[in-house]
Specification:
The protein has 215 residues and is an alpha/beta fold. It has helices at 11-19, 27-46, 82-91, 141-150, 168-177, 206-211, and strands spanning 2-3, 51-58, 61-68, 72-78, 96-106, 113-121, 129-133, 136-137, 158-167, 183-190, 192-193, 199-200.
Length: 215
């Protein structure tokens, strides 16, 4: 796990604004901060990719530059993952993209829930570097279901997970689900989950804060 929020950086300013219930009233600012966090996490992740020296021709000569070689697939969970996905795409603009809808279904309005996946659009992930993005890593059940749904598209060479805020419980859970060499890139880690499986203190519902309350 790469927990970037443990270090002092401008990242903590963006996290603070996301959590602030007064600043959350500005949906554009909320989305932009998630996007900026995605960019920061992408930059740090990029240091672990595979690189190769290539020659670039300039107007006055040539220059050898070390460039990333990985074939990337970015996969985000709709709808909350869209701003985070954009942050990654700002940096990994040559990546292929996948989108999946996954939502919690609470039976009889109780605390217990199941994660339902009912839409998936993805390229082949066989032998590629898969980057899964979900802004709120609460119980880990959503990422588990997304991973299971993607298996019919091939087996990736490497898996990275990018989240804004996660719970310790959710992080422990995905450690039991994903391959041992999977890397998690996260901005903040909170201690608790509510009875309904929401991160505490967290920030609320990232999808609603980004795009409005759903019925």
């Amino acid at each position: 796990m790469h927990h970037l929020g443990k270090e002092n950086s401008i990242l903590n300013q963006f996290i603070s604004e996301l959590r602030d219930r007064e600043l959350q009233k500005d949906a554009m600012r909320f989305r932009k901060n998630i996007e900026r966090i995605g960019e920061i996490l992408s930059y740090e992740l990029s240091k672990t990719l595979e690189y190769q020296i290539e020659t670039v021709t300039t107007p006055f000569g040539t220059k050898d530059i070390s460039l990333p070689q990985n074939k990337l697939v970015l996969c985000s969970v709709l709808r909350a993952g869209l701003p985070l996905h954009q942050g990654l795409l700002n940096y990994f603009d040559g990546a292929e993209n996948a989108f999946i809808s996954a939502y919690r279904h609470h039976r009889d309005q109780g605390d217990a829930f199941e994660v339902i996946v009912n839409y998936l659009a993805a390229p082949s992930i066989e032998g590629k570097t898969l980057i899964l993005t979900d802004p709120m890593l609460a119980t880990g059940k959503t990422l588990e279901n997304v991973y299971e749904a993607l298996k019919k598209y091939g087996f990736p060479k490497k898996i990275h997970i990018i989240s804004v805020i996660g719970s310790k419980q959710g992080i422990d859970y995905i450690n039991t689900i994903f391959p041992e060499d999977t890397q998690l890139w996260i901005a903040a880690v909170d201690d608790k989950l509510s009875a309904k499986g929401y991160i505490l203190p967290g920030l609320g519902d990232a999808g609603d804060l980004s795009f409005g309350i759903k019925l």
